[in-house]
Amino acid sequence: MQKRVIIFTVIFILLSMSALATEMDDYCGMVFECQKADDGYWFDCYYDEGTEDCRCFVGDFSECNVSRASSVQMTPQEINLTVIPEEPELTGFAVAGEYTTKLFSSVKGMGLAAKAFSVVVLIMIVVLIFSGRKDSPEKDLKKARSYHKKAVRAHDKGDDDKAQKYYELSDYYRDKAHDNE
């Protein structure tokens, strides 16, 4: 039970960190995307956890993601630059690849410490999950006691067939525990 609580807590923390990073990326895009810079326009703005500040690339207006920007006043010439020609319909593999790219794009904005922390937490989760599955004499004896109690209850109710099955399972796990010691 304690392991499950730890696992769910770690998952909640990771999801919260991911949601915060996504929220900060959205904020940076809303504030800085498509704003005029000295050498062009800011685009692909993201939150850098290492510097705790927004970062943007500089380039042509055509590279801006206008849908992320909050206050873009476009001239008719700039509007013509943003027209995208029709593309062929995406296949299933292309859609899956695009989804995967978007899913992991938040990693780009994470700092090195956050990435390392995420990897360590994922490794801990995997170790906790698989360490609980290993058979041990203690677990086998616990199962044997549990089946013995079920057998006694079934016998008290008069269900001798069920009681016999539970006694057999109890003996099996007790023998298994003694063999593994």
Task: Describe the fold and architecture.
This protein is mainly alpha-helical and 181 residues long. It folds into 2 domains: 130 residues, no CATH class; 44 residues. 62% of the residues lie in helices and 8% in strands. It contains 6 helices and 2 strands, in the order H-E-E-H-H-H-H-H. A two-stranded antiparallel ribbon has the order 1-2. The chain starts with a helix and ends with a helix. About 8% of the residues have low confidence.
Gross morphology is rod-shaped
Radius of gyration: 29 Å
Low-confidence stretches: 74-88
Provide the number of structural domains.
2
Lateral arrangement of strands in the main beta sheet: 1-2
Tell how many strands the DSSP assignment holds.
Answer: 2
List the helices and strands in order.
HEEHHHHH
Average pLDDT across residues? 73
How many strands, which pairing sense, and closed or not: the largest β-sheet? 2 strands, antiparallel
Task: Kindly report how far apart the N and C termini lie.
Answer: 25 Å
- Could you tell me the strand content as a percent range? 5-15%
What would you call the structural class? mainly alpha
Task: Enumerate how many helices there are, as a single number.
Answer: 6
- Helix coverage percent: 55-70%
